[in-house]
Recover the amino acids of this structure.
């Protein structure tokens, strides 16, 4: 089984523009391409797990999300990186589109997206990491049995940290990389 990095999309892998689905407005967080290239070379699967309640809210279709995924693959390919998976939750309990307006098991903080990815891609959750900018990401990762990193680059994360108690807090992909390598070295020497 392969370990994975489960990456939140907005304000983690890319700067957030709320409900944006225009590929032209999507850019990678600085350092993400370089770090993910090295981490993928070390054997980590790279999987995006993202809440996309804009579908349930009627802001855009599921088909529009395909364009976002394609843009991310394109941006990352410039670094020799490919995403192994892209799992999203289109639901929201208060959604306006009936087909998606419900409680579900996949909207973070639920662990459904991570568990589905692990089943689909045969991933080792105990050696994997959930990385995201809010408490819902950390809770989802912990419920799935992963290590957790709160990515605090884009906003004052004090409240998110207080309510989720992540294993680590970082502000850059470089810091994130160091933490993961240190943990792997510790694991191998145990
Ligand atoms: Mg986010």
């Amino acid at each position: 089984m392969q370990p994975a990095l489960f990456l939140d999309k907005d304000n983690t892998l890319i700067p957030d523009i709320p409900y944006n689905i225009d590929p032209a407005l999507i850019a990678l967080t600085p350092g993400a391409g370089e770090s993910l290239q090295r981490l993928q070379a070390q054997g980590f699967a790279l999987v995006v797990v993202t809440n996309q309640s804009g579908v349930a809210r009627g802001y855009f279709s599921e088909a529009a999300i395909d364009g976002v995924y394609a843009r991310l693959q394109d941006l990352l390919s410039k670094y020799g990186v490919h995403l192994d998976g892209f799992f999203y939750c289109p639901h929201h309990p208060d959604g306006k589109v009936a087909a998606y307006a419900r409680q579900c098991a996949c909207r973070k903080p639920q662990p459904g997206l991570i568990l589905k990815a692990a089943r689909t891609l045969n991933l080792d959750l105990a050696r994997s990491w959930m990385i995201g900018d809010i408490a819902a990401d950390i809770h989802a990762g912990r419920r799935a049995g992963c290590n957790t990193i709160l990515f605090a680059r884009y906003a004052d994360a004090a409240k998110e940290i207080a309510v989720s108690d992540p294993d680590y807090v970082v502000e850059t992909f470089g810091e994130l990389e160091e933490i993961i390598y240190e943990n792997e070295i510790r694991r191998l020497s145990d």
In short: Residues 8, 10-12, 132-134 surround magnesium ion (CB under 6 Å).
